[in-house]
Design a protein that fits this description.
The complex is a heterodimer of chains A (224) and B (295). By secondary structure, chain A is mainly α. Chain A is built from 10 helices and 2 strands, in the order βααααααααβαα. The longest helix of chain A is centred in the C-terminal third of the chain and has 32 residues. Classes of the chains: A mainly alpha (224), B alpha+beta (295).
Chain lengths: 224, 295
């Protein structure tokens, strides 16, 4: 049995490297803080959440800084995944079969690459909304430096910041559900980094086949 | 009048009912600023600092008598000086005492997300409770008059209290107490409105100010600081007093439709994925021994 960069000696497949997992969890932890503190400021009925985060004054101080951490993580993510997240012509067929995907009729789905089109949507949704949240967030962070005659920027940010946040919340709910409850093995892949060969073949057939081809050719050339 | 200041009408960012609402017979308080008899002596600026315990800070000179460009977190009362050429070609030096207007429909309170950081009393005073302020600055954007100011040292927002501490003890605000010309008056809203209208009529009938009138903008439900202006049709000339101030549309949209759409959406999302799990369950991959070994 060949093993190499992706095919691990324990018979499993490396899905996410340590580097990828670190960046994912930097984004995840900062996002959860942003989400909880944001919800506290969003509605009086959720203001109590601020108490859990060290009080509303501290949550207000930390929220922008965690926003910077999240933005940096998202930009790094774009650096490492941006290319693999590009839309391909095959994605159209996947979206047309989305009903099968939802009903867990995965055998009727076209094969997915390293990231399926749904994951691509999640990524770009977080990337675009993340940048818009950063922009509006900077204005809300330091309103005393936005002059009165540019007040329209402050007013627009008050309304748009939660709008962009709501888009990410929609993505976040689906992402957490699929990553934990729905797709068994997915959560382990982003914690330990590896998945079973069957999992790789089932969920990301095209990617797995490519891994096999690459490992086989490199194995041959190195005389393994 | 004095007891009414402890009766609360609205509390910012607060879930549930307001304690003690509607208990007393109330008199709303009001400050009347007659810009036509102000001499710009700035005694009110000094009295405000003294009563509220702020020290004198550096002033900004920009070829005007004005102490600084706008009110500051520790300078709540500012006379705005504006040179204005009226329609007869005469130069007028307009002087307007700028401070919190204590709106009946306060934009600061509407925008504030912190529980009980802004309180509106039944007598009309809108007061910041700094102990509950989280320093987000939303009030600064919600206010149509550019009044709340952020303190970089306290990291909280401050503004004129209409001397709530004095008024609740039956005293008039410090600025009123000190005014030497009597251009500042203090009383119930009805009394001040009547006095202001009388003065405006006098200006129209006897002083040739045909457009003289009272500034009590209805867009924010009326204010508890009202002005008599020589020309009520052009309040902007008085250091940028807005013609039709309102609680900003963006704040209204955020607090009403967006909040309900967002809350519904979030509940729908969480319930939706739960129902999906009940209906379709997880995607479980059958571990096939053949897989991988074939490689």
């Amino acid at each position: 049995m060949i093993h190499g960069k992706y095919l691990l000696p324990n018979g499993r497949v490396l899905r996410y490297s340590f580097h990828e997992r670190m960046i994912h969890w930097t984004a995840a932890v900062s996002y959860v803080y942003l989400l909880l503190s944001g919800l506290a400021f969003w509605s009086p009925w959720m203001f109590w959440i601020a108490a859990v985060l060290g009080g509303a004054t501290i949550a207000r101080e930390l929220h922008p800084w965690l926003g910077i951490v999240f933005s940096v993580a998202v930009v790094l993510m774009d650096g490492m995944w941006g290319k693999q997240m590009k839309e391909t012509p095959a994605d159209k067929g996947w979206w047309e079969s989305i009903g099968h995907y939802i009903r867990n009729e995965d055998d009727k789905m076209p094969p997915a690459d390293r990231f399926n089109p749904g994951q691509k949507l999640l990524f770009w949704g977080f990337f675009v909304n993340g940048l818009l949240l950063l922009l509006t967030g900077l204005i809300l962070w330091l309103p005393q430096y936005i002059p009165w005659n540019l007040r329209i920027l402050r007013l627009a940010s008050i309304f748009l910041h939660p709008v962009f946040a709501l888009f990410t919340i929609a993505l976040f709910i689906v992402h957490v559900y699929m990553g934990t409850a729905m797709e068994r093995g997915a959560f382990g892949s982003v914690i330990r980094g590896d998945v079973s060969r069957a999992w790789a073949d089932h969920h990301h057939h095209s990617w797995f086949q490519q891994v096999l081809r690459e490992e086989e050719s490199s194995g041959k050339s190195s005389g393994d | 009048m004095s007891q009414a200041s402890t009766e609360i009408v609205r509390i910012s960012g607060h879930a549930g009912s307001v304690p003690g609402a509607g208990l007393n017979r109330e008199f709303t308080v009001c400050k009347l600023v007659d810009t036509t008899t102000c001499i710009g002596c700035k005694a009110c600026e000094v009295a405000c600092l003294e009563w509220n315990g702020y020290t004198f800070t550096e002033t900004t000179f920009d070829n005007s008598y004005q102490t600084m460009p706008e009110t500051a977190w520790n300078y709540w009362n500012l006379i705005k000086f504006n040179e204005y050429e009226n329609e007869d070609g005469n130069l007028m030096l307009l002087m307007r005492k700028d401070q919190c207007m204590h709106c009946a429909d306060p934009g600061c309170l509407a925008a504030c997300p912190a529980d009980a950081a802004i309180v509106q009393y039944a007598n009309g005073i809108v007061d910041f409770q700094e102990a509950n302020c989280i320093g987000c600055g939303y009030c600064m954007t919600g206010c149509p008059f550019n009044i709340p100011k952020f303190s970089p040292t306290a990291r909280k927002v401050f503004k004129c209290t209409l001397c709530n501490d004095r008024v609740s003890q039956g005293l008039e605000p410090a600025c009123i107490k000190t005014c030497p010309t009597g251009c500042l008056h203090f009383g119930t809203k009805a009394e001040m409105k009547e006095l202001a209208e009388t003065r405006a009529k006098q200006l129209r009938d006897h002083s040739g100010y045909r457009n003289a009138g009272v500034y009590d903008p209805s867009g924010v439900g009326g204010t508890h600081v009202i002005y008599v202006l020589h020309d009520a049709t052009n309040p902007e000339a008085y250091g940028g007093l807005p013609k039709n101030p309102q609680v900003p549309l963006m704040v209204r949209l955020w607090k009403h439709p967006l909040k309900w759409i967002g809350n519904f959406g979030m509940i729908f999302g969480v319930v939706g994925v739960f129902i999906h799990y009940l209906r379709f369950g997880p995607k479980i991959v059958k571990e096939d021994e053949q897989h991988g070994d074939a490689a």
